[in-house]
Amino acid sequence: MLDEIDAVDWGSVPGHPDWYEPERVARGLRALFEAANLVQAAEAGSQLGGGGIVHGHSGAVFPAAVMATPLLLDIAQRGHPAAQDTALGLLDEALSCHPHAGYTRVAVPGGTAVPICCAIAHHLRDRTDLLAGLGKRGKALLADAASHWSFEIGECVAENNDTAAFGILAGCLPGGVHAAEMHLAGDITMLRELTLEYPPADGSREACLRVIARHPGELPPGALLFPASCGDRVH
Asked: How far apart are the first and last CA of the chain?
């Protein structure tokens, strides 16, 4: 675990120079992993929450929070109960805080830069079984992560002036009309209106979206959709 923390060059992770203090991240994560009581866990949490992955007093989250999320989840799984509580609290802050302008996204495989909140939510969903087993706080994190949905387009069919897009939905897309970002090969295209046509059923993640006033050729297979509201989040 300590090797995994030290393997990240936190100083190379971008962040607002007036608020982000990269030395706090590795120091705080190491201390939280090694914490053996409430006081030690609280001190580690202060390192991470006072300019490490978030700046709690101002309500800002930094890109480093994305890289720290899997590590915090490991601490929640293996660490002292006080460290577990601290890790879950930090994850809640990271997901709910807004990033500074110019530091709102992180690069992911495929070349696109996704909103910080969506990247954190992806890591949380990857550990659904762990979080579901951690009681109310873990389940609350999963519920919050669900609103940061994503949709991978598989196949599209024209329906009058709209397109029915079939694919895989992660998270929960609520009813109503929504705007979305479409990510493909490093490019981001805005989709102004889409609705959930058929939600997932019977434990499947397969769903169908209606993308209004777009034709199938504009919605390539493999493209990823994210909420436009997440891309607009700025501290």
From this structure: 32
Between 59 and 235, the higher pLDDT residue: 59
Per-residue pLDDT reduced to its tens digit, 133-143: 999 999 999 99
Please state the pTM of the whole predicted model: 0.94
Residue whose entry in the numeric block shows the structure tokens 């992180």: 106
Q: Sort residue 110 into left (φ over 0), alpha (ψ -120 to 50) or beta.
A: left
* β-pair partners for 105: 115
- Across the beta sheet with 98-99, the strand order is 54-55, 60-61, 98-99
Compute the 3-state secondary structure of the chain and give helix, strand, coil in percent, each to the nearest 5: 40, 25, 30
Domain extents in the chain: 2-146, 150-231
Ramachandran angles phi, psi of 112, nearest 5° = -90, 160
Torsion of Cα atoms, 15 then 18 then 23 then 25, to 10°: -50
Q: How far is CA 215 from CA 162, 193, 197, 233, in A?
A: 6, 13, 16, 29
Query: At which residue do the structure tokens 């293996």 appear?
Result: 78
Print the SS3 string covering 99-133.
Answer: ECCCCCEEECCCCCEEEHHHHHHHHHHHCHHHHHC
Residue pair 49/41 in contact (Cβ under 8 Å)? The answer is no
Q: Which residues contact 137 (CB under 8 A, 6 or more apart)?
A: 85, 88, 89, 92
Q: What integer pLDDT is reported at residue 58 of this predicted model?
A: 84
- Mean pLDDT is lowest, of 4-8, 54-58, 122-126, 189-193, for 54-58
Q: How confident is the model at residue 57 (pLDDT cuts 50, 70, 90)?
A: confident
pLDDT given for residue 111 in this prediction = 65
